[in-house]
User: Fold this.
Amino acid sequence: NEPVCECNTCYTGPDCSHFTPHCRVNADGGDPLFLEPFWIQHSTSSALLVSGWNRMSYTYSDNTFFSQQLESLIHKLHAFVGNAITQNRYIVFGAGSTQVLSAAAYALSLQNTTSQSPTRVVASIPYYTLYKYQAEYFNSEKFKFEGDAYTWKNISDDGANVIEFVTAPNNPDGRLNEAILDGPNVKTIYDRAYYWPHFTPIPAPANEDLMVFTLSKLTGHAGSRFGWAVIKDETVFNRMVTHMQINSLGVSKDAQFRAFKLLKAVLEQGTGIFDFAYRTMKTRWETLAATLSSSNRLSLQKINPQYCSFYNEVREFSPAYAWLKCEREEDKDCYAVLKAANIIGRQGNVFGSEDHYVRLSLIRGQDDFDILIERLKKLVSEEDGAR
Ligand code: PMP
Assistant:
């Protein structure tokens, strides 16, 4: 049988019960296993049975690669949560938002008909580094990664076309970023992976030209590889569909079926998954903040509470990641400080930032989080002059 158990870092064995005491705790990757307990509770309503002869064709009966039933469920979900306006918008699916983001960059760079030079791809620091990696890896004549959006703020009219990635809430620091650049040559891709009540108050439904979402951070099923874009412009939509066809002939129908079943279960539970996810993330954030409250050495990002239209009240923020700063001048390599304490985070430079910063993932399984807190407590208790 295929193993179903996914062990947390410090546990091994067929049922993940063997604890390795001095292991390095993984606070690096954004594996959203914090949602596993919710799905254990809703095992039956979310289960799939797929017979060998099911869903063999490339396409659906309407000859497209995208399930219309899943698309209408996505519309319903956004309407229920109120996190995005999707009426009269086009929707494109991809293998995770990773594929959708690259399709979006291709589609928008094809709109560059006036300039000879490649479209400039930018994001504000600290940024999610995939945008950079993709632009560099695809090495296209159409676009080139050009770093921090702020650098280009006052260079408005050099005629170059620009794609700005805006991550809201931001990975790594959880802020509700807004576009830095503006103008006729600027196109914006809003990465809304974390724009769910789990991680942030929802002040209003997002209504941008191109917004990208993912199942990974909504239901936690990162391994299903399913994401989608909500698009205003028909030409951009058609270009993204073409990209999907040439790149992978659409999206796995098995992944679409899984997404359908999960989103249906989400909607059947009303506010259930959002209540669970927010409670978990908020408790983790409070635990982390309390752990670091006596430290002079390590500090956390601060974001003020905001009104949330989903819960109709002012809510604290409950970010997916801690954007930790090592405050001491000598702790230039904050990653090394944490590594010495058996904690693996992600270096600030990966996000275009200084190495005084490290990102710690707060969305992993409970065991990983608990061990992270234990290790941080020890690190803080060993500080000279801790408050
Ligand atoms: N955007 C952001 C901001 C992310 O943090 C991630 C995952 N860490 C992704 C996109 C990609 O996620 P996926 O491909 O699983 O949808």
About this structure: The domain at 11-40+272-381 is CATH 3.90.1150.10 (Aspartate Aminotransferase, domain 1). The chain has two domains: 11-40+272-381, 68-268.
